[in-house]
């Protein structure tokens, strides 16, 4: 699994997957990821709340984007408190779509934010993993021209997508 993840990250860094880009419905990706994680959340006593607003299509690879979001949800369920809450939120913010995952935990300390996106870095050794999840999310975000952002005031990680203004104008008419 570790070798496969490393090869996947390398492939993403080389931008080899851009040829598969097509218009992606971020609302569907968010809904599918929530549906996929709901049984796991229920088993762990976690309240998974999904608030999904429609946003214009975004050129990307839907399987990679759902993988990135799944990693963020999985991290929130692992690192947030037992019987806590995990919120997935898709909203429009001007010419951006913002896909956020928030939990009731302490969040990633400011001093670790650059480190957690590096391969094999693990901020906590109390939770299983090898430290590839957020580096994979970062590689997927970079491939898509997105920003991976950590909130300063709570445990929230977001993928920020720049929307194509021309596509947006066509959708409004």
Write up what this structure looks like.
By secondary structure, the protein is of the alpha+beta class. The protein has 5 helices and 7 strands. A 5-stranded mixed β-sheet has the order 2-4-5-7-6. Strands 1-3 form a two-stranded antiparallel sheet. A hairpin with a 2-residue loop joins β4 and β5. α2 (26-43) packs parallel to α3.
Task: Offer a few descriptive terms.
single chain; 173 residues; alpha+beta; two-stranded antiparallel ribbon; 5 helices
What is the residue-averaged pLDDT? 80
Helix share bin: 25-40%
Helix run count: 5
Which sequence of strands runs across the widest sheet?
2-4-5-7-6
Low-confidence stretches: 168-173
Radius of gyration: 16 Å
Distance between the termini: 47 Å
Largest sheet: 5 strands, mixed
Strand content: 15-25%
What would you call the structural class? alpha+beta
Number of strands: 7
């Amino acid at each position: 699994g570790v070798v496969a993840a490393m090869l996947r990250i390398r492939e993403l860094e080389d931008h080899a997957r851009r040829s598969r880009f097509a218009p992606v419905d971020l609302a569907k990706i968010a809904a599918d990821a929530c549906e996929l994680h709901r049984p796991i959340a229920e088993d762990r006593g976690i309240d998974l709340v999904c608030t999904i607003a429609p946003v214009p299509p975004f050129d990307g690879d839907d399987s990679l984007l759902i993988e990135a979001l799944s990693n963020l949800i999985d991290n929130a369920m692992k690192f947030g408190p037992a019987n806590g809450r995990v919120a997935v939120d898709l909203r429009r913010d001007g010419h951006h779509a913002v896909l956020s995952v928030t939990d009731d935990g302490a969040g990633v300390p400011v001093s670790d934010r650059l480190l957690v996106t590096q391969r094999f870095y693990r901020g906590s050794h109390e939770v299983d993993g090898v430290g590839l999840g957020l580096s994979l999310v970062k590689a997927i975000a970079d491939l898509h021209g997105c920003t991976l952002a950590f909130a300063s005031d709570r445990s929230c990680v977001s993928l920020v997508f720049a929307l194509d203004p021309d596509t947006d104008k066509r959708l409004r008419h």
